[in-house]
Design goal:
homotetramer, alpha/beta, globular, Diaminobutyrate--2-oxoglutarate transaminase (chains A, B, C, D), 18 strands, diaminobutyrate-2-oxoglutarate transaminase activity (chains A, B, C, D), 37% helix, 4-stranded mixed β-sheet, Aspartate Aminotransferase, domain 2, Aminotrans_3_PPA_site (chains A, B, C, D), Aspartate Aminotransferase, domain 1, 7-stranded mixed β-sheet
Chain lengths: 430, 430, 430, 430
């Protein structure tokens, strides 16, 4: 399946490139849940830009708004100057999302990437508290710049820093430990005991569902208890909702069903709706303590992203999409459970929430092999987890039910193939 | 000049917002060197998105390419999968820029912001050498995430980290110290002396002209000597060409006249040409040591930026733009020198290279006042330097000569006004 | 009980002084288990120099050797030059202690304090492995210099650093968590999981019985499992035997009954036998990788300490002292259990091993009050634990049984007094 | 010259041992400036325990006091409890040294080693200011524990840490740079410029004469200017007077002739007078902010050291010793100048102050060779400097003039021998 175009990447791009290796084709156009390649193939997208395309590719409403804005020479890049595009976004974001949820948070625009949002949140928590340590959780993923990487669990990624990564205390995530061990009691015991070595932290950062870490979903009860623990100890709670937010698990903010209002919230990925770089940090007003320009970045004012992000808010005027996601989530869950039930030898387990699901496969190499097979079958999907042991499903939230079922069928066949291969004592990948 | 729209930012945006304070208007459309606001005013842009709009706003060629790509449902967001848009960019970038300059560097796409490029470069230098410390220079500015902030000199920005910033050794930049003190001899002496406390570093990061730091231009001789010193000590030399590159000082890479080939080069800002978020790191092949995915980021595959960036390369097929920049740079230089000569009381000095120039004003508050006056007169320009003591000029490289002169006239009047006010013993700003 | 002499400390000494506040008398002479003060009082010493006087005060054999050495103008201070005094110590230490236990360790002399031994051990573990993080345990105490303090759990002590303390991962000590939680399984799970955020450490440092941390004794089974875990993961195991070693728990090395041979062992406190500053680090030969002078210190060659330390080895030629300690330990245990049984309202628990025992008192302030009362009754004893909640007993190992019982009677009365006071709803201390 | 006893060190001691390699003999007794070995040889001591034996070996007055104290069963080890021995020392120290010099400092006893004193000083400066960075100087030596090592310049020693050493900014010491470069102007420029990357430090630590760093003496003018700079910027000035203090350069405190009163002063080495481990930190009363026990250490109460230290104060009741040191210093200076004048090929330079002098020899290996030759000739002396390029002289302050001249003659012959060998194109050492 190699092509002359693939050679271009081989010749010119750094060895760090990765997805072009997992999906060896050259893509051209895309619409909704479908992606097309130079070779003429059409793929069902169960990856959705790693969660950056919750509304599918090239949504018509956003596309129209974007074309109109560009055609009219709307200012494309404006740093953090005032623009009409940004003002409209701010007003609508407040009206559609913040006000109805009783969130009084200020909107801070960092650079337009998730890691920049996380870095900003960490800096702010440290500045607000005057403390240094951040509590993060096993299998957390928050980004690749130095501050975010320090709170990211993955050892391969951490190794890239070339520096000891510090000022983080890792605690076991919700169900990291079995045997009924309660990770929050442990955290609280460490905080209470004046000899535990745990310096009072500057804050806690958490994903409600860990995407890169293996589609590990914390229960709402656990999240509520974490929130209460933070309140008790006066620790800013930062929810990194970059992958789980924007409706991925049903509600716009993934933490809503837990009944909590985190102090600091990071959004990015699907925020612009169209896959354009954009990020923001929501800050409780009394923590909005940076002075003018104390954090900044050249691309904070990506107007095109404001335009599509504003248009994307139409999905959140009522709960139609949320209900849709929950319903489709159940379809995925059932399908995964069926695959798991059929192949106990793969040591399967089904994980996740809403349209953020995964099939954990304990058999070595199995999850990677399933994704490779699925790609051959016309479905784009990736693994996650520290040992790439989970086949992850992040379809567009707007995917039609039929296409969703079609993709799941392809995946089920891929699982069959891999199981068969393993049963014959062959390596998972062929 | 406040407007109902400005209130939106006041109500909803974080206190960290800054340029909306310096330029209290709400901008709508832009073209070339002109920006328009809701109030109907038209401004000459001497700021150019802090150097992200070297080709002016909404260049027609790029605009057409962009509209065509979007209209045709070109894939907008593709992580680091292979896409036609990205392949085209890579081929043309190599053909137009790298090959003719004998640069064999690999292209690494970090997240689409300058700070992400810098973080990647620093991680890589550390990984390649197995060492930790980075030599940076006084008044360096490299970004606001934790790794980049550690090599940034500005104390106000550093204070935002909420952590001790470490693993950096600051050395005096080219002319930071007067009295004929040679900063590179000092650096070398520190390296040579086994008791200096300077651990052998993982690399050196430098801007050829410091933008945020006050438009301080290192001589080409100094840069060459720095390059040779790095070679002698086996220290990777990282040139952060985010602001000074993309033709800002004349040649595409600002370091070309120094006759050097840095080991690692960071580009962003004007790279996409249209103000869209994009960044890359050029890596000497033998230093291209990250494994697949060891550094990553969701928005590495911003296809629209690839499309406009490819189109922007048309400016670099010959040296017309370079010559143009040098010529216009002289016009700016003369105008600034005239202002300086007229107002010795403001303790002026003229700085910079190409179309990256500045008027340093030793009189307290004067530079800020000049920019505020210029804005009233219809010119957008900002200060830089640790005490905001330099009125900075970054006009689009493509600005017509007449508009350039017109803007300089506005600035000259602003200087007159401020000088008059100060002479009357009033504060610089009124 | 204040005296003119106590005023001297008030006037001239830093506010950091502490034991002079707990024991407000001025001491003059001492012998065996008895200490005398200016006021003519005689105290039974249940503190023994915080474990530095295991053989009691001014042992006659050591005293004679010391007087002879000084009288003969033996070289008093010799850095790490060769001296007869040091050679004798090395030979005898090897013959009496190392060889019989099959320990092939090299003897490294750091500066003559416990914290210097710990710092050396940590540096060495990091150098040997090329890694940075050290696993330490809740309620560990290893010293007050920066490296040792980073692996010390106490939050008050840590606060004195004025720096974020880093490169340490704290794990729950043996029984830190109840509910059957297995702290070593947790540690191993963190090591196994590539996403746990736990970078492969440079080593593990542990006390077998935590002295300052509250007289918490790890079981020998737990220590054996920790040792095996370290071997499995190739992590140098450092046993800080500064307080628990030199026979305090029975055998010379506290870890002997666990059947392990730690890679690196720190000794100090009672090493010189006479209370003179001395410390050493035992290093597995293949880890003895410092170059000449890579660690040093002016007072490594404290000859007088070598002389008394050599003499002290006479206690270890057979197991008489060990058996003695174990027997007396049982006496203490019984006495403490009786106190605990009599006063359930004080929420007591009995802790420790050998002659390193403690009475934990959950009632706030009770342990401090008990020690204060005991001092009035003529017994010197201190608290330990993160909330000073344990009344600690460290009598000289050589204390006669009668004196031991006498001291325990004083303590029992002190407990009665405090319990009575609390029962009357008065504060513990009066 | 190897002996059976030297084998003991070879067999049992860590490879880190160093002076036993430079001085391959086994020492037994010592008196004044003379040291004797097992082989019966007698050496003139020009090393004086690296400055820990300023009053010579086994001074009779101190010896008598010590024997009396031990014989009478004076309490040997007392932590920081009140003892008569300690009270006497405090009173006399105040009366003889502090009061006459107008120093109102409090006396803080850290662990009994120089590095412990430095660690305490650094912790305190950070606690007092709430800042982290410490300014240290090229070729500084402050100790080998983590905090002290971070402010030590020597790269070999730093390498032993196994960690990046941080929170230190190294500045060029007094004459580190030639060409009339003013290191203090540079420091002040870095402090003034808000973009220099130099975070406002927690303090400055300095030796007035760098011992290990190569006998580099700062002028009193430079020290006064450093003191004033610290006052201007509110930076605690820490003088590490561990090697240069206790009369080594003439006055008790080496900084006295500069007319300054440092905020924090570290003393150790010759403090006890007899080579016994002892250290203290003098703290300006308003900086005496540690709470009780916030810094501690088992061997703070080394009573024998208090006894000899009290006796040693007899040398400071008038200025006889000071004058003596200055006079003998001139003798050394003249002798070294003569050697330098005679051997320009060795690229010599003469350094130092009082009885802390050195002969720098630019010829590679020459200084080491000179010390080895001198040892053969019966003089103990060591090198210092980052490349061991300085033959260092630290004779006892009390050395008789005749013995001093005798030792200098031996050294002069050693220099002749080495020069001859080099002239014949042979390696310096033979």
């Amino acid at each position: 399946m190699t092509s002359p175009t693939l050679d271009v990447f081989e010749r010119h791009e750094s060895a760090v490139r990765s997805y072009v290796r997992s999906f060896p084709d050259v893509f051209t156009t895309a619409k909704g849940h479908l992606v097309r390649s130079e070779s003429g193939r059409e793929y069902i997208d169960f990856f959705a830009g790693a969660g950056a395309l919750n509304y599918g590719h090239n949504d018509d409403g956003m596309k129209a708004a974007l074309l109109e804005y560009i055609s009219g020479d709307g200012i494309a890049h404006a740093l953090d100057m005032g623009t009409t595009a940004k003002a409209r976004f701010l007003e609508r974001f407040h009206e559609v999302l913040l006000a109805p949820r009783g969130l009084e948070h200020r909107v801070l625009f960092p650079g337009p990437t998730g890691t920049n949002a996380v870095e900003t949140a960490l800096k702010l928590a440290r500045k607000v508290t005057g403390r240094e340590k951040i509590v993060s959780f096993t299998n957390a993923f928050h980004g690749m710049t130095l501050g975010s990487l320090a709170v990211t669990g993955n050892s391969f990624k951490r190794g890239g820093a070339g520096l000891p990564l510090d000022n983080t205390v890792f605690m076991p995530f919700a169900d990291f430990l079995d045997e009924g061990f309660d990770s929050l009691s442990y955290l609280e015991r460490m905080l209470e005991n004046g000899g535990s070595g745990m310096d009072l932290p500057a804050g806690v950062i958490v994903e409600t569902v860990q995407g890169e870490g293996g589609i590990n979903a914390a229960s709402f009860g656990w999240l509520k208890r974490l929130n209460d623990l933070c309140a008790r100890w006066d620790l800013p709670l930062i929810v990194d909702d970059i992958q789980a937010g924007c409706g991925r698990t049903g509600p716009f903010f993934s933490f809503e069903p837990a009944g909590i209002k985190p102090d600091i919230i990071c959004l990015s990925k699907s925020l612009s709706g169209y896959g354009l770089p954009m990020a923001l940090v929501l800050v409780r007003p009394d923590m909005d303590l940076f002075g003018p320009g104390e954090h900044n970045g050249t691309f904070r004012g990506n107007s095109m992203a404001f335009v599509t992000a504003t248009e994307a808010l139409r999905f959140w005027e009522d709960d139609t999409l949320t209900q849709d996601v929950l319903r489709k989530g159940e379809i995925v869950q059932e399908a995964l459970e069926a695959m798991a039930a059929k192949h106990p030898d793969l040591k399967p387990d089904v994980r996740g929430r809403g349209l953020m699901r995964g099939l954990g496969l304990g058999a070595e190499g199995a999850a990677n092999a399933v994704c490779a097979e699925a790609f051959k079958g016309g479905v784009i999907m990736e693994t996650s987890g520290p040992a790439s042991e989970v086949a992850k499903l992040l379809p567009p939230l707007t995917i039609p039910e039929a296409a969703l079922r079609q993709g799941l069928d392809v995946m089920a066949k891929a699982v069959d193939t891999v199981a068969e291969r393993i049963a014959k004592d062959q390596p998972a990948a062929a």
